[in-house]
Amino acid sequence: MCDRLFNHLNTFPCLLRKLAKVEPAVKGLGKNRGLLKDIKKKLDEKNSKTGQGKKASLNNCLDLQKSSSNNQKESEKEDEEKENMWKKLLPEASYLRLKESETGLHLKSPDELIEMAHKYYAEIALPKLVADFGSLELSPVDGRTMTDFMHTRKYFWALMNIIINVELADKLPHVQSLCVHEMIVRAYKHILQAVVATVNNFPDLAAVVASCLNTLLGTPSGDSSDADNACIDTLKWKWVETFLMKRFGWQWKYDSCQDLRKFSVLRGLCQKVGLEIVPRDYDMDSVSPFKKLDIVSMVPVYKQVACSSADGRTLLESSKTSLDKGKLEDAVNYGTKALSKLVAVCGPYHRMTAGAYSLLAVVLYHTGDFNQATIYQQKALDINERELGLDHPDTMKSYGDLAVFYYRLQHTELALKYVYVYSVFLLLGFP
């Protein structure tokens, strides 16, 4: 008996250790206690993952900061290189003026500036020019006035293919026609200048120029005996087509030759190369409309910086605006100030001064002062005849306005005289 009890006592510590490993049951939880343990385990895993994520995001932020700092250093290095490039290309005063403009253009590369310029012309400048043509705010009558309008607004003929495309042909047919004729004139100018440059014997110059004009403006007879002239004519138009495509981006069609106004082309060509010819009725439908004796002389043509006054132009615009609104007194004041400003800056015999005289004459005409309006218009006509020539559109407009003023003064004979002169030059200049 004692032995059995001793054995049980020996095994009791082992039982106690086994019971210690078994967790005590908690009343009230039952089977849900296992679910709580799973939830706690998941929360612990989630917290560990969150901690790892924070560490990873912190590392990413550090990497981004390092990359941004590197990018900033690279951009600063590029800006410094661009600044050094412009310092070498531009004078110091020009570079400082560009930098002080606060436009950031001194930090742009030449390619970026070219791209910005093309974007400006395509999206802002040229649509504005087309809108001005459509509203008749600008009304060019020939290639010269068209060029003046474009140069005043800093446009170039190389971009005219955007204006005279097919989409605008229905809206602005007159502008398209002027542009096409001006491009033809510029193409013919290069041919005529190249031909003149090859002449070694000066007495042969008139005959060579006449032959070149016959090639450019004459009409092949179409006979089989005239095959050489037909071949030359085809070669000429192929050259013109290539030149217009490369210079202006304009696709010339051979069928358009039938719509070409040859007298307008001849007038523009003579103005550009300084060619003086005999004023007579030339038969452009013949093979050789020009003869050696038709060539009178050639004068040098040079380009110069046009004198202008920004203040005078602003005053002229204010005078026009006041006239449109019916404020005649303000229009007279602005016009008088503009005239005095332009006379002081450009001189008494300048085309802008003539424009100021003409505008002030129109304003005075609306106020009823016909005598002073006629005096100012006569001065504008004298300046235009001297500076621009008899067949210039501004000169012809001066003839027409002066005819109206004389008619209001009941000088019918003088009015009819200026109307006749206006009609003759209009037909000769723009057939």
TrEMBL record:
CDD domains: CLU-central. The keyword DNA repair does not apply. Keywords: TPR repeat. PROSITE patterns: TPR. TPR repeats lie at residues 354-387. Residues 46-84 are annotated as: Disordered. Signal peptide: none annotated. Residues 138-283 form the CLU central domain. InterPro entries: CLU-central, CLU_prot, TPR-like_helical_dom_sf, TPR_rpt. Pfam families: eIF3_p135 (PF12807), TPR_12 (PF13424). GO terms for cellular component: cytoplasm. SUPFAM superfamilies: TPR-like. PANTHER family: EUKARYOTIC TRANSLATION INITIATION FACTOR 3 SUBUNIT EIF-3, PROTEIN REDUCED CHLOROPLAST COVERAGE 2. This is CLU central domain-containing protein. It comes from Heracleum sosnowskyi. The lineage of its organism: Eukaryota, Viridiplantae, Streptophyta, Embryophyta, Tracheophyta.
